[in-house]
Design brief:
alpha+beta, Butyryl-CoA Dehydrogenase, subunit A, domain 3, 2 domains, 7-stranded mixed beta sheet, 15 helices, 7 strands
Length: 351
């Protein structure tokens, strides 16, 4: 992606009272350690997600990393900032987890698109799927406007999906250098390697990312759309599904739109194929829908609920992340599964 990363300089300062909390934490004060890491928890979690492509895996990685940091705090000598040290621990934890887990995939990784709706498709349970990321809170704290923009840009679906095609060392080097602003020398120390190796990993990683991501990021696209107009697009998309309105839906889509639904392996490309699927499945074949707006991966998103007669309620069904090209929808990624909703703090059911 062009201009994807707006580099940030790692914060080498400590907040008032941090030194005292560090001393207490080294003496075994868990509350002091919690205070030390609390302001960094959100950005560390996002880093783990970028590395691993799964919110669930990011939860596990962050928990393990903070446990390692707590146990190894006596080894932190203060030669770098606490933030730098915690990123070292988190990155190494993610690299360890990657050795035992599959890389995260999206349906386009598995094969060509389908030209017509595939009915009664079975989920692929043998694939580790990329998951959506709830980005609420990424804008928080004392981050600068550039940093807030960067935080959202670096978790976009296209970027995180592309990162999964990189070996662990390249993935870590790219994120630490281009996203988080660490120097090649610092990264070499963090990863127990040489500066030459880091620079080589960066060159290789950037080549893959350039091939697998669009030239314009979603943040660049969204900045050109008025907030009111963006809400209109999301509302129109939701209304088209709720009303079974094929004509209304097709007016929202680009000609080369894609629709994928992990964990279902089939995906569709082009307005004809997408509409064949839409008309035969969500618009007429599923039943009644309701939607709640949210945000995932720095992109407009809707939580989709499907009517269940036995329950007498609408049940959580999928998190639909929209990718825009101008004011048209260029991709719909429906992450099917009620388990996603808890991360977005969305209800399990609607009346």
């Amino acid at each position: 992606m062009s201009d994807l990363f707006l580099r940030r300089t790692p914060d080498a300062t400590t907040a008032d009272g941090a030194d005292a909390d560090l001393a207490r934490a080294r003496d075994g004060d868990n509350a002091a350690f919690t205070r030390l890491v609390e302001s960094l928890r959100r950005e560390l979690h996002a880093h783990c997600y970028r590395m691993l492509g799964s919110t669930h895996d990011a939860d596990d990685a962050l928990q393990e990393a903070l446990l390692r940091a707590w146990r190894g705090l006596a080894r932190f000598e203060g030669r770098s900032s606490l933030r730098s040290w915690l990123y070292t621990v988190a990155t190494r934890t993610c690299l360890d987890l990657m050795e035992t887990r599959q890389r995260r995939a999206v349906p386009v990784d598995l094969g060509p698109s389908s030209q017509h709706a595939v009915l009664d498709a079975a989920p692929r349970t043998d694939v580790a799927w990329l998951g959506p990321y709830p980005d609420a809170g990424l804008d928080g704290g004392r981050a600068s406007p550039h940093a807030r923009y960067e935080q959202r840009e670096a978790v976009e679906l296209a970027m995180v999906a592309a990162l999964q095609h990189l070996p662990g060392n390249q993935r870590a080097a790219l994120l630490l250098f281009d996203v988080l602003g660490f120097t090649a020398a610092e990264i070499a120390t963090m990863m127990n390697t040489s500066t030459t190796s880091v620079n080589s990993a960066l060159a290789r990683a950037r080549k893959v990312i350039a091939q697998r991501t669009p030239s314009r990021s979603q943040q660049q696209t969204l900045r050109k759309i008025d907030d009111g107009r963006l809400r209109e697009i999301v509302v129109a998309f939701s209304a088209a599904l709720e009303n079974g309105d094929a004509d209304g839906l097709v007016t929202l889509l680009t000609r080369d739109v894609t629709w994928s639904m992990p964990p279902l392996p089939h995906w569709y490309q082009g307005v004809d194929a997408v509409m064949d699927f839409a008309v035969r499945v969500p618009l007429t074949g599923c039943g009644s829908w309701r939607h709640l707006p949210t945000s995932a991966n720095g992109q407009p998103t809707v939580g989709c609920y499907l009517w269940n007669a036995d329950a007498g309620r609408y049940l959580a069904w999928s998190i639909n992340v929209l990718t825009l090209d101008g004011e048209k929808i260029a991709a719909i990624t429906s992450f099917i599964g009620s388990a996603h909703f808890a991360h977005f703090r969305l209800p399990d059911t609607l009346a």
